[in-house]
């Protein structure tokens, strides 16, 4: 039997509906010690904290990382499963993917319906995650998200629906694999990069979404509030309204790294347009173009990059991968 470390962190998978129909936190995680799961693997369960995932912080994520390292250094685990709220699940998954230097499977899962609601998906997803963690082909693929019978890479997966159980999707790329009643099939191999292991929790990176008439004052805020970096979810292929440019110039003049992603759901930013605020001009100014991440993931990537002392060209290269 494979030996797995399971970390329960909270979220809907750990919650129940009360008599008024509202979803609330339980003292005990209902999927903890589930008999069906105990038959699949030898499981050591720990509960580092129990929070709804909107309460997750960089400190929680880093704490989770340290806890995983501590336990896998002490004992020979074949894999790690983390149960987590879905709202920020992709952020914790990607943070661990960027910073955990391990080859055993590390898999996050959660639920869209709490434990006593009709069609509750928590135990089902948990079982699927445990089965995947036991699969020999799940090794060396970085951090994975298992949800609704699909296996996604932490880098590409995102929550796409407020309530549907098929909420986790990987725009542009699709899932790495699928899970059936009896089998686990991987169809793609993710491109892997060497993790960076230092994390400075004091680094502050802001995230802002561009829109028509974006006010330069909003960008100025980040320099006034001493942010270490800024992510802009730009328009289309990577363009900004002229109204924002004076604020952007101030950030760049103060050598605050600015990374561009797109507010579009699919595609990658590029320096095509040569008009005021167009990608060409932003690139010339020194804005860093990210290779296809969403804003919340680019934020964590910039925190990790700055924690590891990446600046100028090294930072640009890191974001091009
Ligand atoms: N489905 C969920 O888990 C959502 C919940 N609000 C959370 O992220 O904790």
From TrEMBL:
Keyword Hydrolase applies? yes
* Database matches in SMART domains: Asparaginase
- Which keywords does UniProt give here? Hydrolase
A Gene Ontology biological process noted in the UniProt record is: asparagine metabolic process
UniProt GO molecular function: asparaginase activity
Q: Which residues form the active site?
A: 12, 86
Domain annotation L-asparaginase N-terminal: ranges: 3-189
Q: Name one Pfam family in it.
A: Asparaginase_C
Domain annotation Asparaginase/glutaminase C-terminal: ranges: 204-319
**Protein residues bound to substrate:** 53, 86-87
Q: Which Enzyme Commission number(s) are listed?
A: 3.5.1.1
Which domain of life, per UniProt?
Bacteria
Please list the reactions this protein catalyses: L-asparagine + H2O = L-aspartate + NH4(+)
UniProt KW Kinase keyword: no
Q: Which family does it belong to?
A: Belongs to the asparaginase 1 family.
The protein's name in its UniProt record: asparaginase
Q: Name the source organism.
A: Macrococcus equipercicus
């Amino acid at each position: 039997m494979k030996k797995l470390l399971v970390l329960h962190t909270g979220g809907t998978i750990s919650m129940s509906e009360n008599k008024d129909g509202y979803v609330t936190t339980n003292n005990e995680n209902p999927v903890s010690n589930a008999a069906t799961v105990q038959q699949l693997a030898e499981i050591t369960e720990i509960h580092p904290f129990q929070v709804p995932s909107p309460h997750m912080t960089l400190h929680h994520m880093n704490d989770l990382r340290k806890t995983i390292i501590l336990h896998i250094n002490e004992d020979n685990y074949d894999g790690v499963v983390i149960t987590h709220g879905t709202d920020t699940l992709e952020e914790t998954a990607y943070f661990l993917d960027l910073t955990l230097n391990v080859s055993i499977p590390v898999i996050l899962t959660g639920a869209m319906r709490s434990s006593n609601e009709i069609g509750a998906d928590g135990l089902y997803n948990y079982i699927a995650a445990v089965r995947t963690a036991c699969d020999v082909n799940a090794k060396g693929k970085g951090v994975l998200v298992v949800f609704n019978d699909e296996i996604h890479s932490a880098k590409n997966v995102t929550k796409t629906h407020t309530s549907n159980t098929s909420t986790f999707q990987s725009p542009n790329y699709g899932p790495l694999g699928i899970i059936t009643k009896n089998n686990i099939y991987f169809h793609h191999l993710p491109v892997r990069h060497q993790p960076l292991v230092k994390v400075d929790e004091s680094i502050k990176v802001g995230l802002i979404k561009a829109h028509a008439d974006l006010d330069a004052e909003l960008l100025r805020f980040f320099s006034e509030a001493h942010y270490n970096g800024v992510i802009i979810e730009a328009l289309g292929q990577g363009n900004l309204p002229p109204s924002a440019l004076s604020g952007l110039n101030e950030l760049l003049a103060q050598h605050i790294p600015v990374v561009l992603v797109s507010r579009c759901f699919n595609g990658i930013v590029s320096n095509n347009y040569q008009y005021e605020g167009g990608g060409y001009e932003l690139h010339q100014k020194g804005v860093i173009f990210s290779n296809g991440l969403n804003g919340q993931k680019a934020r964590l990537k910039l925190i990790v990059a700055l924690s590891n002392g990446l600046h100028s060209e090294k930072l640009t290269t890191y974001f091009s991968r």
